Amino acid sequence: MGGDTLFADMYAAYDTLSPAMKDWVCTLTAVHDIARVFAGRLGKDRDELHAKFPPMRHPVVRTHPETGRRALYVNTGFTDHIVGLSRKESDWLLAHLYAQAAVPEHQCRFVWRPNSIAFWDNRSSQHYAASDYFPQVRRMERVTIAGDRPYFDPDR
After folding, report:
1. Report field, pTM of the whole predicted structure over 0.85
2. Is the pLDDT of residue 139 over 80?
3. Domain interval for residue 16
4. What are phi and psi of 31, to 5 degrees?
5. What is the CATH number of the domain that holds 42?
6. 2, 76, 132, 154: most buried by Cβ count inside 10 Å?
7. What is the pairing mode between strands 70-72 and 56-59?
8. How many structural domains are present in the chain?
């Protein structure tokens, strides 16, 4: 047993911020860098990954294109820093925002069984694979649908 996936509701993560924090984070942009996770896992050089997948800037709060709702759009794997803040300030704020995804009331734990299927929307949720199954091996198939470019609409 083990290898469950924890899903975090990033709408709730945003909704439970204080009004002042909501106002501030809606004005911010963060740099997302695939090399943070995949350089080590794939044994690739950061520059080699950046040639194909350059770091991207995305709003810290994104507007969901279908629901119009706001969701936090930062995560420990890919978000490197917040533009315009010092590294110390950025790290502090990101730690605060990352903690929103770890609030139990914002989470759902999916227990995998043979032939289980799960669908989630990366535009409004995050997922974390619990690594509690050693020495067993986690095997699964994953399909990712090409998405849209994250944006923030202050009027929605």
Report:
1. yes
2. no
3. 10-104
4. -95, 125
5. 3.60.130.10
6. 76
7. unpaired
8. 1
